[in-house]
Amino acid sequence: MAVNWPGLLSLCVFYMMILAMGIWASRKSKREEKKCTGNRSEVTMVGGRNLNIWVSICTMTATWVGGGYILGNAEVVYDPTKGLVWATGPLAFFMNLVLGALFFVKPIRSKNYVTLMDPFQEKYGDKVAAVLFIPALLGDILWVACILGALGGTISVVMDISSALAVCVSAAVAIVYTLMGGLYAVAYTDVVQLSLMLVGLWLCVPFILANPSSANITVAAVTKLHQEPWLGSLELEEAGRWVDDLLLLAIGGICYQAFYQRVLSTATDAQSKLTCYVAAVLCPILAIPSLIIGAAAASTSI
């Protein structure tokens, strides 16, 4: 197996940059801990409730826009049995963030909670909260597995290195900077990763569309009638499944601890709601490159 050395070098530089950002954020976390009137857990979990609004917007967006989101959108458009109409993620996450801002931000912030489990513990006691924690934990484990799986698969294809190695290194880096800086490290590294993702994906689009091997996606969508076009189709008998997919992401995401961690990390309710609304707009926008790439792949394969 031939290793792509320039790609491997760029990956090492990226991880070093992320680690450096994590170290800087850990120092900032310690400074904030001295100024914070609450206990240490508030600095670690919710950034001392004083996270910069722009950083908060980026980390809220990055909560949903990750490897699974990017690859999933492209995969759905590429799948000949689905197509663009089945790419419910962008719409679902828009709905999720708007619903969260309208109905959940103020109640969850009014009592200075730290985690999603706090209101359940307060209302129903420790035992019920402990039981409810289990599905929340499983959801987080599966979400992390999805992100790492997407990353490992991508790196193994692009750089010809082991998928398992890519997953292990990525997980180790994430664990190190999270342990060092808590939410501050996660939030500030999210800014870097989201920026690189935005630039990198849009940089790929013109090369993919202009490549001689790629088909014209507009022509393929209209003229290749003998096969399923990348636009996809939605039959009446499939409407229930489509709505179920949409609501699973839109409503299910409201039960996600990472969402409330970002909601609770800002200084005011207004900032928290603004974070949700801006992230709701950014999520569909950041899906556009992967949707185009999926359309190009589907058109070329026809």
Automatic annotation (TrEMBL):
InterPro entries: Choline_transporter (IPR052244), Na/Glc_symporter_sf (IPR038377), Na/solute_symporter (IPR001734). Pfam families: SSF. One of its GO terms (biological process) is acetylcholine biosynthetic process. One of its GO terms (cellular component) is plasma membrane. It is a multi-pass membrane protein. The keyword Transmembrane applies. GO terms for molecular function: choline:sodium symporter activity. It is found in: Membrane. PROSITE patterns: NA_SOLUT_SYMP_3 (PS50283). The chain crosses the membrane at residues 6-25, 51-72, 84-108, 128-151, 157-179, 246-264, 276-298. Keywords: Glycoprotein, Ion transport, Membrane, Neurotransmitter biosynthesis, Sodium, Sodium transport, Symport, Transmembrane, Transmembrane helix, Transport. It comes from the Eukaryota. Belongs to the sodium:solute symporter (SSF) (TC 2.A.21) family. This is Uncharacterized protein. It comes from Gasterosteus aculeatus aculeatus (three-spined stickleback). The lineage of its organism: Eukaryota, Metazoa, Chordata, Craniata, Vertebrata.
